TrEMBL record:
It is a multi-pass membrane protein. PANTHER family: TEICHURONIC ACID BIOSYNTHESIS PROTEIN TUAE. It comes from Desulfobacula toluolica (strain DSM 7467 / Tol2). This is Putative O-antigen polymerase. The chain crosses the membrane at residues 14-32, 44-62, 91-109, 116-133, 139-156, 165-187, 260-279, 291-309, 315-334. One of its GO terms (cellular component) is membrane. Residues 123-263 form the O-antigen ligase-related domain.
Length: 344
């Protein structure tokens, strides 16, 4: 569909870039499937994801303290929000949406010493605190939804023997999250949905979505071409704003406007196959395989929720992580160094 949309697009340079980025994400997905063949390799990949989340949180803290040692991540003209290396705090929140579930499922992949377990709990608290400080409504909702997804799946398994532990962890995470959020201007952030920055209000996003829907209607079958939204949308933006929207603030509307209405059944079918394959992995005899598949599904589910109100999948770092998590969730060819993972 993207190739067809590219062929008929009147914005060839943008469409070519969008097509190239899509191929990059597809390559990342298949590289994950083909190169992560052992239990150790999968653990290393998950540790890299978690370490990256910790790193961007540390960068955000340093920038808040005006001691950022990385000047290339300073963005003059943008507010000094808790965004780390990102321009927008919502996109840092999107990365944390996907990373926090992967850290959470480490508790169920193997038995660990008290010291390591305590350290993992502290890291979870740190990342939840970072997520709270982003003040991203979509990030809060998506992260909580991902944790509930994990808890719900585990509690629904009849043969899962640690349901009390999951309930305890779930209640603890909820209490910690509420405590963290209660220390921040969360109430003000929620109750001023229509009084914030004119580009970041509920009403502005609804009007942006209306313009995107008009764009879809005018280019129903093949869209305007990959990555062409920013140059095509100004003709459809509703009057009343001094700023032109470069993204639809809804990844679904954004991608449909670029590639056509047939993307809807393709997305539905793809997600159905993805979650069906992911849930099949939960029957594996390997706790690690079950845990990482569950965490990856939860991370994907979180960003899919967040994508209803933002454009995280248009941000290369987040789209890349999304592709890698998809590979982790459906991968079924992993082996240990000496024997199949199902026998480990």
């Amino acid at each position: 569909m993207c190739i067809l949309s590219f062929i008929f697009s009147t914005h060839k340079p943008f469409a070519l870039e969008g097509l190239f980025m899509l191929l990059t994400y597809i390559a990342a997905y298949f590289i994950t499937l083909s190169s992560i063949q052992t239990r150790k390799q999968q653990r290393i990949l998950v540790y890299v994801i978690i370490s990256t989340a910790i790193l961007i949180s540390i960068i955000a803290i340093l920038k808040q303290l005006d001691i950022n040692p990385f000047p290339w991540w300073d963005y003059p003209g943008y507010n000094n929000s808790f965004a780390g290396p990102y321009v927008n705090r919502n996109h840092m929140a999107g990365f944390l949406d996907m990373a926090i579930p992967m850290l959470t499922v480490l508790f169920i992949t193997r038995q660990r010493s008290l010291e390591i377990t305590t350290g993992m709990i502290l890291v979870i608290i740190f990342l939840l605190t970072s997520q709270a400080f982003t003040l991203s409504r979509g990030g809060w909702v998506s992260t909580i939804t991902a944790i509930l997804f994990i808890a719900g799946v585990l509690l629904a398994q009849k043969d899962y023997v640690h349901k009390k532990v999951i309930l305890t962890i779930g209640i603890s995470v909820t209490i910690i999250s509420l405590f963290i959020l209660s220390s921040l201007p969360v109430v003000q952030r929620i109750t001023t949905l229509t009084q914030q920055d004119p580009v970041d209000t509920l009403s502005s996003r609804i009007r942006c979505w209306q313009g995107a829907i008009d764009q879809i209607k005018e280019n129903l079958m093949i869209g305007t071409g990959p990555d062409s939204f920013a140059v095509e949308y100004p003709a459809y933006q509703l009057p009343g704003y001094a700023v032109l929207f470069r993204y639809a603030h809804n990844d679904y509307l954004h991608f449909i406007s670029e590639t056509g209405i047939l993307l809807i059944p393709i997305m539905i079918f793809t997600l159905f196959c993805f979650f069906r394959s992911g849930f099949q992995k939960l029957t594996s005899h390997s706790r690690q395989k079950r845990g990482f598949a569950l965490g990856a599904m939860a991370g994907v589910f979180a960003i899919l929720i967040h994508s209803f109100s933002d454009f995280n999948l248009n941000i290369p770092a987040n789209a890349l992580l999304f592709s890698i998590l998809a590979g982790i969730a459906v991968q079924d060819s992993m082996k240990s160094h000496n024997k199949p993972i199902s026998q480990a």
